[in-house]
Structures are given as C-alpha cells and as structure tokens.
Amino acid sequence: MLQVSNKETRKFKIPGVIKKNISGWLIMAPTLILFAFFVWEPLLASIRLSLYSAKGMRTEEFVGLKNYIDVFHHPDFFPAVRNTFSYTIWSLLIGFLVPIIMAVIINEMVYAKGLFRVGIYFPNIVPGLATVMMWAFIFRPGKTGVLNIILGNIGAQPQVWLSNPKLTIPLIVLTMTWKGAGATALIYLAALQGINPELYEAAIIDGAGIWKRIVHVTVPNLRNLIRSLLILQVISVFQILYEPLVMTNGGPNNASISIMQLVFKYAFEKFDYPKAAAVSVIISLFLVTLTAVYNKFSKEQDI
Amino acid sequence: MFNIKSKDNGIITYSDLKKPSIRIFYYVLFAVCIIITLISIAPPVWVFLSSFKDIKEFTLEPSLIPKSFDFSRFVKTWNDLKFVKYYINSFYSVAGSVVCAIVFNGLLAYAISILKPKGSKFIYGLILGSLMVPATTSVVPLFINLSKMHLNGTFYPLWLSIGANAFYIVLYKQFFDTLPASIIEAAKIDGCNNWQIFFKIVMPLSKPITMVIAMYAVNAAWSDFLLPYLLLNNSGHETIMVRLFQFRTSIKATDVEVLRAIVFAIIPPIILFTLFQKQITQSNTHSGVKG
Q1: Of A76, A266, B122, B227, which sits with the fewest C-beta atoms within 10 Å of its C-beta?
Q2: Residues A125 and A42 placed together within one structural domain of the fold
Q3: Which residue in A has a C-alpha nearest to residue B258's C-alpha?
Q4: Is the model's pTM score more than 0.90?
C-alpha cells in the first residue's frame, strides 16, 4: 500500500516551481479581485461610459465624442476649469511654501520640538468634512462668524468672507492648508533631519552666513522631495470636491465651482452618468499628461 | 527667557546664537512656532467652547468664550439627534475596514515581497501605476456597478474597497522586505504552508507596520465621506460623516446643534491621536519619505 501511494504521488507530483507560483497567485487572488473591481474595471468603464448615451444606469448607444462636446458647451464648464486652475495656483502660493517654512523653523528648535510636531499634525486627524464645516463657521458673514468677532474686538468692520467672490478661493485654500500643512511639514522635517551636519560645517568653514547655508545646503538637499510633493499636491488639489461643495456649494455665482463638482452634479444631481464620466476622463487625461511632462522635465533638469 | 546650552544640528549653530541679533531672531522663530501650533489647535477648541452655548447666546452675544459650561446640552443634542446610532454605524464601518485593510493588503504585499510568484513584479507595477491615476475617475462607474449589484445601504463596499489600497501595499512591502529570510526558511522546513507562514510568522513579526496601517485605516474609514454618502444616504445606516453632510443638504438643525455634532465627529479621532500620537507622527514621517 505504502509503496503504491508513493508511486502515485510521484507520478502526479506537480513540479515545485509551478506549485510555488500557483500558491503565490492564490494568495494574491483575493486582493487582485478587489483591485479589479474597485480600481481597474471602473477606470476602463469610465472611458467606455463617456462614449455612450444612457438612460439612467443603462448604456444605450455609441455616440462618439458627443458627451465631451456637450460638456464643453455647458455654461458651468469654463468657470469650473478656470476656478480649478485658480485653486491650484493659490494652493501653490499658500499651501506649498508654508509646510517647508514650518519644517525648517521647527527643525531649528531645541526646546518643545516634540510639542510643535504633535501640534502641527493635529489638524490632520480632524475629518475633512468636519474641518470644512468648522471653517464655514469661522468665515461666516455677520456678527456670529469667528473672524468677525475677532475683527469686532479690534474695532474693524465685519467682512462677508466666502461670499466675496475675490476671497472665496483663497479662503478655501487657506482651509485646506490648515488641514494639510502639518502632515506635509513632518515629511520635510524627516528629510531635514537626514541632512548630513558635515555639509553645514563645510559651508560655515567656507564663510557662508545663515541665508547662504539655506540656499546652498538646505534647499538642494530638499530638492527631490520638493519635486515629488509638488506634483502630488497639484494632482490632489486638481480633484478638489467637498471643500467648495460644503463651504460654498460652488457659489457665489459659480465663483468657486470646481471640475470635480461638475462630475458630482452631473452624476448625483442630474443622474447624467455619461457626461459625469466624460468630465472625469478629461480630468484624468489632463493629470496623466501633466505628470508625464513634469517627470520628463524634472529628469532633464537632473542632467 | 531661556538658555540654550547646546545645539548640534540645523542651519543655525550654537556659535551663531552668541550674537545678540541672531539670538533675538531665534526667539522670534520660537514665537512663530508657538503661533503656528496655536493656529493648528485653536479652531477645534473654539468649536468645543461654542457648543456649550445655547442658540440664543450663540446668535445674540458673539464672543469666543461661553458664559457657562453645561454638559447637559451635549447630552440633549446627543439624544435629540440619535447620535448613538450614527456612532454604532461608524464603528461598524471602521472595524470592517481595518480588518480588510490589514488582511487583503498584507496578503498581496506578502506574495509580492516574499513568495514572489512569476509575474508578481508586473502586478506590483500595476499597483504602483494605480497610485498615479486620479481616484475620482472611477467613482461614477463604481457607483453604477454597486447599484446594479444592490449593494446600496450595505457596508461591504466600504470594507472591501479599502482592501485595495496601493499605498498600504507599498508600506507593507517595504516592511516585509526587511524581514530576515532565514526565519521564513525555517518555518518552511518546519512544514508551514504559505498561508500559515503569513498568519503565524509574518504578521506577528509585522506588528509595528500593522499598527500604522490600522491607524491610517481607522482615520480614513472614519473620515471617508463620498462613497459612504453615495451608498448609505437615507438607508438608515448613515455614518457620522454622512449625517454631518445631511445638515448641509436636507435636515435642519440649529447652529449650536451642528457645532455639537462636529464635536461628536472629532472626539474619537482625537482620543486615538492622544493615545498613539508618537506612532502616528513618526510613521507619517517615515512613510512620507519612502513613499
């Protein structure tokens, strides 16, 4: 018996290499199914959906680029694109430098460094929706708004804040910066702590003052990190959605509507899914192109 | 003020600080740090203070500090708005998400990092690639798929979607790469199969990174808003975030009630943060630089 079964198993024994691969793929399978379902399939489906007409959730017939043309001609499209660029530029002006400066200053501290680190990270744990609702109270026009209370205490006139079309976008960006800057600053802090102190010593021996040390040692050492965080920030700000949705609902008079908000409106207010897909494909195409160009450009700079 | 006895890193050196002008500049920087920290924590503190007011005091007497601290108002809003239910829903959503985030992402990273079946490099490339594609593209078709499968009003999509997180996979893979190969070989010789190696050897050795990912997942699931809103709105299973958004759209409530609701939404993450602040701030710096 024993001999027979031994023979049997030898006959049907699967080679070790294949066995190892099968078992590996079996372990990967559940997660890959999730990726296919939640990430990859919807991505391709989005492109397909944008080329079809649909009744509710059922796609009907191939219409080519009609959805794209309709989207382009919608009166909200141009303001949304302009505002999204405006968000991006403001977030680079305000949100990009703030964490770098915060990190450089905190890295210089001898006392209370740990306290500062925890303090600046704190806004990051406040849920995004709670953050924007909170700041809506702070920017509220009239005398109950926090900023107006503070202005009142120093004897200044109350402002309308978010209802002022010139201030809407910068104020929303300010809210995003409040939430995100601390977490980004911690990333820079880690990089700053990784700079070899001998570089600073060498700069000092060469007679470099504080400013020159920043320009010739600190900035070059942060350059790679700055480069990758810059594009990541542009990608995420470009998809801004719930900040304007909750704080202003795109107003006043479309002054803060973003492209992602168009997707939201098409899909979940008008239930026009193909047009929503068309807008999101436009966003993705733009961002993928931008990333590719940016990577090529920054690689050329390396040489 | 205070004396700095030594300073051995950073741009400004100890010898610079002997000059009075630089010393004053340094104190200014210290003040700037304090101001930044205050700005970081002031808004939630204000929300907390203001929610002690009643609606009359809030509208008629604009001030930053309330007249009295009456906790019974919190209790009343908690009961009026039936927050127990939303807390339970949110906890339910968070618990499932954390399990899925750890098991699914851990398994895939384990296969890529340790088992390395043929083609796993390509899979890792695909996963890194999906980090670059804007997440928002997939929201609409995903919602349509889920609706067709009648998964509206259930938590399964929320749990499972966090099981496909490229960022967590990168974190796990980087950690698994540092595990000594000899331990895994030893387990193999002792007759463990690949699943046993994962659950009995790899996961117990990976507690630090699992802690980090668990905390990220708790925060992400608690704060997540778009997918929960699309799936759970008006289903009776609303999470806290969906409930908060309803104040904006459908349900009327007084300002102070909204403020108290914000407090309720912030308290659990704050408790988590206070308990684990060291791990959270440190892991953030590590993951950031590597990822």
Answers
A1: B122
A2: no
A3: A133
A4: no
